[in-house]
Amino acid sequence: MTELPMRERELLVGRSVARREDPRLLSGRGRFVDDIALPGMLHAQFVRSTVAHAELASVDVSAVREVPGVVAVFTAEDLELGDIVAQLGRPLSEFVPTAMPVLARDKVRYVGEPIAIVVARDAYAAEDGLEAAKVSYATLPPVVSEEAALADGAPLVHAEAAHNTLVDVSLFATDGIDQVFESAPCVVAVDATTGRQNALPLETRGAVAHWDDREEQLVLHTCTQIPHQVRTVTSRSLRLDERAVRVVVPDMGGGFGQKCVVGREEIAAAAAALRLRRPVKWIEDRKDALSASFLAREQHYRARAAFDAEGRILALDTDVVCDMGAYSCYPFSAGIEPLMASAEMPGVYKLPAYRVRGRAVTTNKAPTAPYRGVSRPQYVMVMERLFERAARELALDPVEIRRRNVITDFPYTGVNNITYDPGSYLESLNLCELLVREEGWYEKQAAAAAEGRHLGIGYSCFSERTGYGSAAFAQRKMKVVPGFDISEVRMDTSGAVSFTTGTMNHGQSHETTMAQIVADELGLDIAKVRLHQGDTDRITYGFGTFASRSITIGGSAVRLAAAKLGEKLCAIAAARWGITPDEVELGEGAARRRAAPDTPDIPNAPDLLTYEEIADIAYLQAHLLPKDIEPGLSATATFDVFNDGTFSNATHACVVELHAGTGQVEILRYVCVEDCGVAINPQVVEGQCRGGIAQGIAGALFEQVTYDAQGEPSATGFMDYKVPTAHEIPDVLIHHLETPCAFTETGAKGAGEGGTIGAPAAVLNAVNDALRPTGVELDHTPITPETVHRALNSTRNSALNRELSS
Amino acid sequence: MNTDPVVTHPQLQLITLDVNGEQHEVVTEPRRTLVDVLRHDLRLTGTHVGCEHGICGACTVLVDERPVRACLMFAAQAEGARIRTVESLSDDGGGGGGGAGGGELNDLQRAFSEHHALQCGFCTPGFLMLAEGFLAERPEATKEEIREVVASNLCRCTGYQTIVEAIDACATARRGACANPCDSSAGKEH
Ligand code: FES
Ligand code: FES
Asked: ipTM of this model?
């Protein structure tokens, strides 16, 4: 039998296909949660705590009801809602669960904690109503720092959590590690801290809830990355069957992790809608979004590393304390940051011995949620600082010391029991350095130094675990184990396809990238393919979008489901032609007979059946189907990653100039060599990279929520919380490498978080490189102009001193 | 049955707004902001709210062709002015924009799409109106000037580079079209 050439198909995967979400978003026809208006809709605002730590002596809302326009006001007592409780399957010595009431009951634990919900005719009247609430507090001493939380005799944020410690795990401790430190030729240490940040999606959180009498369902429109988990908690809190809650997510203006936990306000809004049998809308204002919604990233590392004389790392010993604020978030719990740091800190380096203790402490600050990169921006920063410091001690080139330590043989199983799939750690490092060299930055640095200017070049190398399947999360002992994803692909009688994903787009272009996958798999015009997401009634189940799981896991499920549907299309066509399905091929919206010369002609049958014709048979002419083929055209598939996950990797380089007069850090150049396996849509990958780097730079140089001694947050508006603009964020040169992933259906690894992970370390190293003549080293982010100014002036002083004393 | 308390605000007022070339009569409280009237009373929800205090620029609209923060202006102050929102950009002028039932995107919108200058798209209407107003005033703007202007709005997703590139590409194409009036890629707004 002679092989006929397969029809050459123009594949969409791998191409920068134009985004399908763009026309509506560009013409103002996107539909975000605040765009939803229902007949008779009311508006909610929250009475929030003005103190950080107190017993609620009394909550008197009677005057609120008298305010013009106010329709109702509810306190915790009125609504009797179930608490939100995040769980880890760990012994009490390692994890203390705490309950987060939807509205504060007896105690408040942070400024901004919701105490009562005011519902009014419009948002203005609801705000008027807030002012009439009288809350009296019996104040307690607030705990506002990690040190204060751990101090002996510290006031307890939660009575059940001794030493204010919610998580205390020692995941790894290599035998003999102390001896390694004792005998190592070089031991370096860092004491590094990172500031509390706000993920800050430009669209604040919000919800519109109403009761649908016909469906006997509470319909909750809300901007969340995890619609099904919101449904679970909402139904439990309201004591409804889960089927009686439908969560619908419209377009979302970003999330970055802040919207991948269950918030209290959407549940309170739902409860109010249920009580009043009226639609209720709550849109968080920016003040609340900055100070009272979920924050992230405040961590403290005390880390030591031992090196041999050639600069090879021998051992790493770390103690990390994460300030999780007042409550454990659902579903991840307060374990999210310390467990991530503990499990993955060795990163891209071959590390023989490792000891780590990870703790989450609770304080009287707004609670934390995962934020793009979760702990990896911080531990990568710490690792990269250790390498830089060792390079200085051993007089090695900073790139060379990394070159000697990165993993090069794959698969590699680390001292942290993680098996890394193949990546381009060394290649990305070499290429990144080459790009920096080729642009002449080392010469420019030397020239600048000669002029007394302060130029610095910094690198960071990292990998990011992306395809967290059930196995990886089960290792963390999460009670809610996110991992698999389900997709359904359906063809209608016109031959058009709709398909679902359990992931939830909030800027990552799923409507385009996932449609590329389906269109390729079925050989169908992308215009005929449409994704549906974010509706718990339409999607069997899903864990939403976080940890860069959408394309790796969601996209794999999509591909499998499309392939199954393709098999059915082949089977129906084959039955029509009396041939076997493998003699049928799909493409260009039709099934064709892969006719070999010795195949007898089939009388009265065309050698091509369009999908429309096949769909016509499947739905409208079902009598033509053989018995073993069910009518209809739909297929469902699930996908999970059963090994330790997939690892995207990158090297970042940053060039900065420090301005002596102002202490300002100016980024002159940013280069990123990234490898996320097969890039489904390179333009989208670059977009994720650039956006991520901007957020990483924001953390490195600008953004921080600080608290005063009373637990009052500094950030209440964009005047106090400095979000970088086009002034501060540089253009980024991106180079792609491609190490296809063997564990996903598309060869893709995740790409959402890398930029944010790599940037703080690269920026901090660059600043330290520029500060080298001063002898000052910085291990804290954000790096403020004040610190830089002081460091630079210390040079002048010491230089002056040297001059004077010589 | 509507059991809402009747708001007898002494200062409710009737105002007339000219939005995207249409006259609208609105009964409103004096304290109601222009962005709230546009979004919630006129249902032109393309204009977004990111901060309500004049920093993020998500609410940017054109008032008499100049970019203005609609959260910092009371609707009553906009009486007598010509207001343009993102809904006016595509060529059907009424909130179209490609796909079923929509009009054609204008050259600036197309440039945003071609350069991947939007991700979640929440900031996008603000940037579009900012750029639309700016390029009308300064068609010869350099890339540096464009970056300067772009820095007045916040985007949390893109890292700004592609926004600057999109606006620059649109400006360059418009200038090319002016030099050669037969060029069909001409923007309609200059
Ligand atoms: S909403 Fe007007 S500037 Fe932010
Ligand atoms: S595209 Fe999301 S904020 Fe700009």
From this structure: 0.95
